[in-house]
Structure formats: structure tokens, C-alpha cells
Solute-binding protein family 5 domain-containing protein (Heyndrickxia shackletonii), 568 residues
Amino acid sequence: MRKSAFMLMAVVLSLLLIISGCSKGSAGQTGGTSGKDDGKPVDGGTLKMAFGAKEFNDTLIPGLANDAFNANLVRMLFDGLADQNGKLELVPRLADKWEVSSDKMSITVTLNEKAKWSDGEPVTSDDVLFTYNSLVSPDLLKIGGDGGSALNTLKGYKEISEGKETSFEKTKGFEKISDKQFKLNLSEKDAVSVTNILTQRLLPYHILKDKPIKDWQNLDFVQAPSVVSGPYKVKKVQKPTTVIMEANNNYYISKPHIKEIVIQGVNVDVAPGLFAKGQLDYMMKGFNVADVQNLKRIQNVDVIAKPGDLFEYIGMKLYKPPFKDQKVRQALMYALPRKLMLDSIYKGNGVLLNGPLPEIIGAHASEKDGINSYDYNEDKANQLLDEAGWKKSSDGKRIDPNTNKPADLKLTYTQDSKTSQAIAESIKKYFGNVGIQVTLNPQDSTTKNAKLQNDDPSIDMWIGAWGGGGDDPRGLWASDAALNWERWKDAENDKLIKDTYASDSAFNADDRKQSLIKWQLHTNEQVPLLFLWTYYDVAVKSKKLHIPQDDLIDIGSLYNPQDWWLSE
């Protein structure tokens, strides 16, 4: 699932790898119990699935699965009180319903009466309290946990995370009403935190209650959970690349159609050959968008390519004089023929982005909402630069009014990325067409990112990519956000962001969407960075694998695998 802003830090390293690496006989019959594909789900078969990774970490429980491979495995093994569908709408899972109080400071949750663990034990309020206490415990943080940041608005979070308390029940963050009902009390009004809390996947209290957290990393249960609440359970782990799962026939929502799933870490370079040989049925993400046409040549597969949540941009250090004028930033947007660049560099496998939320996000603002599309317009770019006082000299070069010298902007990019190099060369060309010289500054990814974070004076602009923030703007866009590498300080922006989570109206989905749109319009006008595009996520699946269309909205995550089925 796409991460909230509070979880964004956990995916930074993987995103940086993406930024630097974007330039990047049959095994037997697989099928269901029916010999005919009549469009109706059938039971049985073995699904051979892969993620774009060579191996996985040996921690398969919530709180310790901090990479994309393990996180998707955990999605199949453990449910939360609620889940988010591809449109970021909350849907019930282990909880039957929840109600936010009129003052927006508490949530009363009623568990699904049918919800149970795979060993038949019921899911109870004790499981919820135990999970929340465990995830925030400093002992879990010491062995690789993330500190339970998704729970940071529960009363007592600070005390428990610092080891001063051990239970949210003692801090009044959790009140047990019955085995099937409880109340959660918040320390602050935060609409996004409701989603963060309810979507946290639960741990089985009756299995782990007597096991000290400091010893969890070495438990067989952590490496191969024997009791789960999700649609699949672990059958066998073959380290370091393979997990075999079998259907949880006690799954409280519905019995899964596919009997067994073999999940491997597979290098994307060898995946096409495995599909061609019938040795692979489904692979999520990892493919280079430029390879879509080649993938479509493989027999008996469907190539799914659609906009994801990862967007590419040109960053600007906004405290530097050349970028302080909004008209200059807007001019730079108009100066770029982004559609031509997208078609040339990524063969059209993406969509242009004009604001901070990609279109996969339900609250994405479009031209219908008033977003400026910044269509390529060299005349408009020149007009804005003239208005900003960036006059042309006799040789056609723009004079930076801040220095009274010819403008020369330094652009840093990852040196071993062919796509970044192509983008950099395009920027140099098209900014040059409006009189602005660009000096290219290729760096290795480690050096580049260190300089960005430390505001190295050698960097004016850079090529970057972000994603995974969901619809919570705080992680990237707030003035005090650690990942606000542009150092954008804008009081109106901070006010609009606060309206998206801390106002009473933010607890209403439609009203919150309007607040997000209003914020996006402001960002679109201010241009704190140069938005380029969202490129496609690419997945490949065998034609015999059937996945409901509603579960393919975000192909980077697993939705309802119990509803998938195989035909021969």
C-alpha cells in the first residue's frame, strides 16, 4: 500500500535507489481445477509470482517487514482493522465498523464477529492492544522496527516509545470495552492518523504474549508465521529468495481460490525469459518502463502499465536568489517540452504531472479543478523572464538580476543513470533556448544525495524522484519536513496542509478532498519544484491468472489475493 507521510522516511532508501537506477522448457502445468476458462472463478492451482528483488529479509511479521518485498508478503499474511483500496478509501477488515467522536479525539472500534486467526482463535481487543504496545516498544526498534510511527497520535505514544510506559491502556490511549470493542484516544486532532492507526496490521496475542520482544528476531514464528489473519499462510521458507504460501481456508472474508503461491525474488533482467518458458505467472513492478514494448512480445502474457505514485521532478534550492521569484520558476516550467521529453526518454510510458499528487491518488487535482497544465510555450517563458527582470544581452544570454552576470544554473544528476543524463541534456537545451545557460554536474548517487540533504552550495538544481507519500502532504511539502530538500518556506502552504488533516472538515472524505485540491492549486501556482511526470508502474502476468480490475488500481501492491484465480 502506498505509505502515509509518517511512513515516508522508511521508503527513502529504496526511492533513492530508484532515482539512481531508472536507466536500468516448461516448469509444468499451472492451473485450476477446471479445464475450461468460462470466466468464472475456479479453485486450485499454484501461482508462481515474483517481486523485483533478489532476496528478502527473514522477518515476515508486521513491524519488522520494512522493505517492499517483505511488506507485500505481510499483506498476504496479516490483516489490519481496515485496509485502503487503490483509491485510498478505507474498507473494513478485522473491524466491522468504527466511529470517530464529535470532538475528533477518539475512535470507537467494533471488531468483526467472524474475524479469527488461522488456528481458529478469535481476533480480540487484546490482539489490538498487544500489537500497538509491541510496535511502539523501544525493544522492537532495537531489532529493526520502525518505532510504530503510524501510531504517534495515540495518547501515550511518547511515553511508550521512550520506555517510560509499556501499555497504551495505562496511558489512556486504549480503553477496552469488551473482547470485541475498544476505544482509541488521540493526543491531537488528525484525520490522517485515523487511517494510519486502523490500517496497522495485527499480531496474535495468544502466540507472542510470553515471548520477549528482544528475542523476536530469532523466533521461528517471525521468520515463518504459523498463525495468521490474512488469506494466506506460510507453508515453507527457502532462504534467501523463496517463500511458499498456502491458502488459509479459515479466512474470515472468503476462502482463497488459489491453493498455493510460490513467491520468489527475481532479477528483472531474467524475468522475461521465465515468462516465456511458463515458469512465472505474475511479477509486480521492477520493470523499466522503457521495456514495455519488448515485454508485449512475450506470448501468453498481459503487460499492465499504468501511472503509479512515483514522480520525477527537477528540484531547486529555493533559498538561492535565482529561484526566489515565482515568475522565474513558472517560466522554467513553460520552457520545457515535457511531453516530447517523456515520449523520447520513456517512450511515452507515463503521464505529465502538474502538481504534488499523482493521478493514482483519489484527490488528485486536474485541469477541471483549475490546475495550470504549463503546456510548452517558449514565448510565455520568455515573457515571464522579461517581467522578472532577466533581460537578454546582445548574445541572447539572460542576465541574472541578482548578480548582473549571465545566468548559469548548475544541474546535478546521477551519473550512471542514462535516463537522468537524457533529462539533463534536454534541460540544458531547452533552458538554453530561452537564454539560460545550464552547467551539468554528474555525481554518483551517494555523493549527490548527501549534498542535497546538506545543502551543498555547489547544487542549484537536481533531477529527483519521490513517491509513497499517499495523500498526506506533510512528509514532503511542509516547511519543517525533513525531505523538503527544496527548503520551501511558505506560510500559506503550511496553513493549507494543516487544513487537510487538523480541521473538523478533514474527517469528511469529500471535504478533505476539496482541501487537498485547494492545496494542490496553490502548489501548482507557486512551483516549488519543476514537475515532470509520473511514469508507469509495469507488471506482467500470465493470461491464465485472473485478477479483478478493481484490485489492479495500484499494481505495486497486493489487493484481495483471495479473489484471484487460475485457469488452464
